[in-house]
Each structure stands twice: as structure tokens, then as C-alpha cells.
Amino acid sequence: MNVKYINPFIKASTEVLKMIAQIDFTTGKPYMKMSPFTPSSVLIVVGITGQIQGQAVISMSNDLARTVASKMMMGMPVDSLDEMAKSALSELGNMIMGNAATLLYNEEVTVDITPPSLMVGDGITISSSTMTTIGVPLNSEFGTLSFDISIKER
């Protein structure tokens, strides 16, 4: 997998999280994930189409998801992932992926993204048998978020 496809996702995720949730995330060492894999309990899934195809999965613990949603809503307490918090997290996925699509376009790679799907639950398994998945840990003082990118060239 070409690194020029991965770096825009990493850059977009850290910049959007800083701007929208006011949380500094540092990038851990990217690694290949074996399929199938079981992410954390809150997932934002966005499909990628165009010159590259695949999906991005942003996963985090329930605690980190509530913290991120709370910060996105100007500190409003988020005791559970209600519809407002879920909407905020879905929009976060949309903003990250929209920014990544723009960064890819600047590298002359045209992509489109699907609307985000939010999944909450333990033991969800993701299989990307036809694509390589790169996992990128994003670490913060509130916990670690995993950004998993599965793409292939068209």
C-alpha cells in the first residue's frame, strides 16, 4: 500500500480532532492488521470510492467517545451515547474523511466518501479480506483511538 494514500488520513484525523474536539492526538507507529480484527466498542465507518477503494474505521472506547462528543459540544456532559452524541461522532468521521479526501485531491488522487455509519457494541468483527488494513494508533491524554484504513487501488 502506497504511503501517499495513508498520510492524508493521518494528517486529517489529528488536525480535525485538534480543531473540533480540542484534543491533541499523537500518532503511534502504523502497523498492518490481520483480518478479521475486533476494534474498540465505538466505531465510525466511512467507505471510500474513486481512484482508491476501501473503508476507514475510526474506533475508540465508550469513555473516549463520550469525552470526544462532550468536547465537540462545548463541554456539555455526555453520560451516555445518546442520539446527540452519536450525531456528533458521525459528523466527526465525516469531517475527518472530507479533509482526507481534499488532501488526497491535492495529491492528484480523486476519491469520494460515503456517509458515516456509527456502530456501538462489544465484539464487533471487521473483515477486509481483499484489502490490506493499516492500523494507526492516535494517542491522547484521554485514551487511544485507532484509525484503520483498508484501501486498494482501482
Characterise the protein shown here.
This protein is an alpha+beta fold and 154 residues long. The chain has one domain (3-153): 3-Layer(aba) Sandwich (Chemotaxis protein chec), CATH 3.40.1550. Helix content is 35%, strand content 32%. Strands 1, 2, 3, 4, 5, 6, 7 and 8 form an eight-stranded antiparallel beta sheet that branches. Strand 7 (132-140) and strand 8 (143-153) form a beta hairpin.
SSE blueprint:
Layout lengths: L2 H19 L4 E2 L3 E3 L8 E9 L1 E9 L1 H11 L10 H24 L4 E3 L3 E4 L11 E9 L2 E11 L1
Antiparallel strand pairs: 1-7, 2-7, 3-4, 3-5, 3-6, 4-8, 7-8
Helix pairs in contact: 1-3, 2-3
Strand content: 25-35%
CATH-scheme architecture: 3-Layer(aba) Sandwich
Task: Name the CATH superfamily classification.
Answer: CheC-like
Largest sheet: 8 strands, antiparallel
Q: List the uncertain runs.
A: none
Brief sketch in words of this structure:
The protein is α+β, with helices and mostly antiparallel strands. Helix content is 35%, strand content 32%. It has helices at residues 3-21, 62-72, 83-106; strands at residues 26-27, 31-33, 42-50, 52-60, 111-113, 117-120, 132-140, 143-153.
List keywords for this structure.
Chemotaxis protein chec, 8 strands, 35% helix, 32% strand, 154 residues, alpha+beta, single chain
